[in-house]
Design goal:
mainly alpha, 2 domains, 2 strands, disordered N terminus, PBDC1_metazoa/fungi, Polysacc_synth_dom, PBDC1-like_dom_sf, Polysaccharide biosynthesis domain-containing protein
Length: 168
């Protein structure tokens, strides 16, 4: 039985609970499991839905996303002092230079933030809701850094007024 079949036989729960490293084989030997991808997408959407509902219900400046918001925000602004957070430029964030800066930033929080590198949806325009045209994928610590900045700097202030009665 090949390694891909072994992982598929485990299913999501078994793969998450399996102990020990994966057999040392090439990454090309592992195929994307559509079921796992669908479950990941559902989890990412549930996270986005929960966060948007919070923005609709609570004054964003009072919203704390983690116990480490102050540290995340101060480090974010030290590394990215001029990054515009109201409307994100996905190309800037995902450029070669952007990826390098973000990779270093993200790794600083590896031990501090649980699931720091999980895929998470973020809104491109802070004034809009989640949609296929207004969302893209980032890792969790990027989401926290940008959304904490949006909350503290007022970029999310209009969400409650605009969408308060229209929760996802």
């Amino acid at each position: 039985m090949d390694n891909t079949s072994k992982l598929n036989d485990l299913g999501l729960g078994g793969a998450q609970q399996s102990e020990g490293p994966l057999p040392s084989t090439s990454a090309e030997d592992y195929m994307n499991d559509p079921i796992l991808e669908e479950q990941w997408a559902m989890k990412a959407f549930q996270h986005a839905e929960t966060y948007f509902n919070l923005l609709c219900s609570i004054e964003s400046k009072k919203l704390r996303l983690t116990r480490h918001d102050d540290e995340i925000y101060s480090r974010f602004r030290a590394v990215f002092p001029d990054l515009k957070v109201d409307i994100l430029d996905e190309n800037q964030i995902k450029s070669v230079e952007g990826k390098e800066l973000w990779r270093s930033f993200c790794e600083e929080f590896k031990e501090l933030i649980e699931d720091y590198n999980y895929g998470t949806l973020i809104r491109t325009d802070s004034k809009g809701e989640y949609s296929s045209d207004n969302s893209f994928l980032v890792v969790r610590i990027q989401f926290y850094a940008i959304e904490i900045a949006r909350n503290r700097e007022g970029a999310n202030d209009t969400i409650r007024d605009s969408f308060g009665s229209k929760k996802l």
